[in-house]
Fold Histocompatibility minor 13.
Amino acid sequence: MDSTLSEPHNGSGPAESPAAPSAANGTARPPSTPEGIALAYGSLLLMALLPIFFGALRSVRCARSKIFSQEYINLLLSMYFFVLGILALSHTISPIMNKFFPANFPNKQYQLLFTQGSGENKEEIVNYEFDSKDLVCLTLSSIIGVWYLLRKHWIANNLFGLAFSLNGVELLHLNNVSTGCILLGGLFVYDIFWVFGTNVMVTVAKSFEAPIKLVFPQDLLEKGLEADNFAMLGLGDVVIPGIFIALLLRFDISLKKNTHTYFYTSFVAYIFGLGLTIFIMHVFKHAQPALLYLVPACIGFPLLVALAKGEVTEMFSYEETNDKEKEPASECKEGTPISSSSSSSSTPSETEKKEQACDYAGRPSGG
């Protein structure tokens, strides 16, 4: 996933703006007012922070050759991201929308089931359960999807982009810090080469249209919602550091110290790195590989904290496991026998009940 922070781009909207995750094209047009520039960059910063912060929190619970013309490729991409965007946005807004449904809302349960074969050879292909609330969220997301498909408006683009980012940070898990450092280190070199070493990023950015970047107009104060002088941020600059920050949050929780030191440190480091990217890009008027600044910040700051606290070993030895598999035997050893009570009462005591439950849960089948 490429990533670059792009300088302002002029166009009629996201449909005419770069559509790659990272992109940039220089322009001779002077920027808008300082207030508009500050609003645009501040909004990009805020939109980048929201998916990382809430995606990280939610991640804890979830423990080519060019054959067709550009027009048809853009149409294919639009339809592809239209469907994915609706599903991602529906999944994103569902927890929020559930709080607004009244208590007497008729929430019916549904199941979408596709199978193949019959009898003993029957095999499930799709088995998806949902309810009426999910249908409402899907309908709202579909309306936004049609709006994006017809208008390519920057607000619809950002709604899809934020949904993709949040779902990416929530669902894409790194299982240890070493893997995260290797991933970020490799993409650090990759991003620098493809932005400074070639013009591929700019070419791709001008060729495709898809909601895989966050955009915000710098001339919003002058033109309102029809503004078209965009500053852009690739989703790679959000998701890639975001999944590493989410990993550090889960590492914080594993320490059981009731503090989120590493999460907040890396989150502040991300703000610093992205702010530095925006500053450099604005001063030199050239697209910047955001990971050039984000990777050293997001890895370096938490590592310094770990050195200061003497927890470097714990950080790099942390390995995520599926805790749910361990829950049934958490309070008893496998094969615990059922103990007889010394009490003459025929009613099982609480201790006996617990031991019986342990025996049932922990004993191998056939024992």
Remarks:
- Residues 78 and 149 are 7 Å apart (CA to CA).
- The chain has twelve helices and five strands.
- The radius of gyration is 25 Å.
